[in-house]
Every structure is written in C-alpha cells, then in structure tokens.
Amino acid sequence: MILVTGGAGYVGSHLVMALLERGKDVIVFDSLELGHIEIIERLKKYGNLKFVQGNLMNLDDIRGVFLVNKNIEAVVHFAAYSQVAESVKNPQKYYYNNVYGTLNLLNAMMEFGVNKIVFSSTAATYGEPEYTPIDENHPQKPINPYGNSKLMVEKIMDDYDKAYGLKSVRLRYFNVAGADSEARIGEWHNPETHLIPNVLKATADKKFKMFGTDYNTKDGTCVRDYINVEDLAKAHILALDYLNNGGDTNYINLGTNDGNTVKEVFTACEEIKGVEIPLEVCPRRGGDPASLVADNKKAREVLGWIPQHDLDDCIKSAYEWEKVLGQIMH
Ligand SMILES: NC(=O)c1ccc[n+]([C@@H]2O[C@H](COP(=O)([O-])OP(=O)(O)OC[C@H]3O[C@@H](n4cnc5c(N)ncnc54)[C@H](O)[C@@H]3O)[C@@H](O)[C@H]2O)c1
C-alpha cells in the first residue's frame, strides 16, 4: 500500500489515478485545504483507495495513519503550499507547513519503520539559472521562501538517510501542465497561478496578462519547460520502483529538455480553443527568470523515464478538463 500525502491536489491526484490503474492500494492523506473531495470521489471509481482527512501539522493525524495501516510500503509526499508570491509575503506559513509538516511525516515514518519516500521538490530550488538547460549539479540557491522550504526538506532527507537509513527520491519538477487524458481529473487551484489554465480561462472582463515581452528570448517572452502531469505521474511510479529495487537516495529533474515561450503557449491555446483569447500585455514581474528548462538526462538514465506528451497534449487535456470542471462547479 502506498501513502500519498496531498493526493486530493493537482499532481498527487494524477499519481493516485496511475497507481490505482496499476492495481495498487492507495491511502490519500490530505487536509482538503487546497485539495477537493470531489477529486477523491472520482478517483475511488478506479481502485482500492482509502481517504484520510488530516493535517501534517498535527503529528497525531499522520501517526494515526501508520498506526491503523501496517502495510504501508512507501510514501509519496506532495502535501505543501506552493505559491511563490504568497511565500514571499508570508514565509512563516511556508516554513511551518512545508518543513515542519514534513518533519512530522518523517517522524511517523521512522516510528513505524517505513523508510522509502518520493518527494515533490521543484526547479525553484535552483534559483536564478546560471546556465540552461539546468542539470542536477546546478547550484541550488533559491530566491524565495517556497524554494528555500523545499531545499531544506531535501537537506533534511539527506541527513535522515545518513542517520536513520531513510531512502528518498527528490523529484524536481519544472512547470507541470495538462490533465488526465480522459478528463476524469485535472488541475483545480484557487487562485490559479499556472499559465495554461489562466490563458484558457481568460475572458473579455478578465484578460490574460502577459508579463514582459522584452526578455532576451526568441520572441521576448519567458521560456518555461512544460511537463505533462501524466508523464510526471509515471515518473513517480518509476521512482517507487527504483526505491523498491534497492535504489539509493537520489534527486532528479523532471522536465522535457525543451522550452516554450509564453507567446507560443498563448497561440497554441487560441488554436486549440478556436477563438481569439483576450490579451493584455504588461511589464515584467520581478523574480521571473528569462528561461527555465530542465536537462532531463538523469531521469532517462536512472529511471528509464521518457516523457510521451507534448505541449499540445497538455493544452488539449487542460481544455477538456476545464469543461468538466465548469460542470462540477455549477
Ligand atoms: N504544480 C506545479 O507546477 C509544481 C511544480 C513544482 C513542484 N510542485 C510541488 O508538487 C506538489 C503538489 O503540487 P500541486 O500543484 O498538486 O499542489 P496542490 O495545492 O494542488 O496540492 C497540494 C495538496 O496538499 C494538501 N496539503 C497541503 N498542506 C497540507 C498539510 N499540512 N496536511 C495535509 N495536506 C496538505 C492540499 O490540501 C492539497 O490537496 C507540491 O509539493 C508542490 O510544491 C508543483
């Protein structure tokens, strides 16, 4: 049985779907502060899924999960706050939840003898890119509390390996995008900060804001590496296999090795939606590097992972999910 923290959220729910489709038993632990019970109800149709509502900030909540379920083989840890701007305004919230919450989880794992964890880390741990594509040896110098909180957890996991034998795979995601290809689940953030859903949701009253068109890139807009959420879920399954096969603690980028500009994403969204999307061009925002692209050689070599979906797949699946989400919300 696999324990998935944050499994009612965007990325976690796609891993849960992939695990259930492979016949795995899954427990989701989620506070539902940012996740959705409707997503859990949808997932329950596809296999043996237990749901526990609880908060990692309460040690007893997470201890209770291990106490009742003695057959947890490994943990995949998504539960965290992840909005960069909010983390700058309220670092305390981020350090408590992302670091202290993780310490409680690790504490419970150690107590109950579970020593394998796959952790959602982020490209934000690298900070301003010194070169691109970014490989795993790139210096980790986060430029905001969110990135710091994730890097702290990475370091804690290293120390726990040395002292207690905790085996972790830290997956450093670039920009996650898209939805389940059958539109059964998808991205549901409030507020939404990610590019593709925000372009798709734009209306005449709430135009899509394009921040910065004077970067040193091919069309002046920022370049990001959009990694499909189903491909990402697959990488987590491979990381679990890696740990089950005796793999040592590791850290791996998840991206496509390729980037797209904001303008390219915007144009592709217009083509897929078949309409003109209302646009407002704005000055640069602070803290947006011109280009963030992953070198994914290590994921290919260590996990045998090959992303299957391209940007159009991400946009098409996100668009189909937006329609379903519209129905759920009405
Ligand atoms: N989405 C991305 O592009 C991206 C990129 C890099 C890294 N990440 C990381 O991936 C993970 C998942 O991201 P997401 O976009 O799915 O986020 P999300 O907000 O959709 O999901 C996070 C889930 O964790 C739950 N949660 C948060 N704090 C909790 C706590 N203390 N106890 C119990 N549950 C708690 C929330 O209710 C939510 O369901 C995060 O750790 C994030 O930092 C995401």
Provide a compact summary of the structure.
α1 crosses α8. Helix content is 42%, strand content 17%.
Describe the structure.
With 330 residues, this protein is of the alpha/beta class. The protein has 11 helices and 14 strands. The chain has a domain of 224 residues: NAD(P)-binding Rossmann-like Domain (Rossmann fold, 3-Layer(aba) Sandwich). The longest helix has 21 residues. It is globular, with a radius of gyration of 19 Å. The mean pLDDT is 96. It binds nicotinamide-adenine-dinucleotide.
List the helices and strands and how they pair.
Layout: E1 2-5, H1 10-21, E2 26-30, H2 37-43, E3 49-53, H3 59-68, E4 74-77, H4 84-89, H5 91-111, E5 116-122, H6 145-164, E6 167-173, E7 175-177, H7 195-201, E8 208-211, E9 223-224, E10 226-228, H8 229-244, E11 250-254, E12 260-261, H9 262-273, E13 279-282, E14 291-292, H10 297-303, H11 311-329
Parallel strand pairs: 1-2, 1-4, 2-3, 4-5, 5-6, 6-11, 7-10, 8-13, 9-14
Antiparallel strand pairs: 9-12
Helix pairs in contact: 1-8, 3-5, 5-6, 7-9, 7-11, 9-11
This protein binds nicotinamide-adenine-dinucleotide.
Q: How much of the residues is beta strand, in percent?
A: 15-25%
E-strand count: 14
The hetero compounds bound to this protein are:
nicotinamide-adenine-dinucleotide
Radius of gyration: 19 Å
Task: Give average pLDDT, whole number.
Answer: 96
Structural class: alpha/beta
**CATH architecture descriptor text of the domain at 2-178 and 226-257 and 293-307:** 3-Layer(aba) Sandwich
Specify the biggest β-sheet.
Answer: 7 strands, parallel
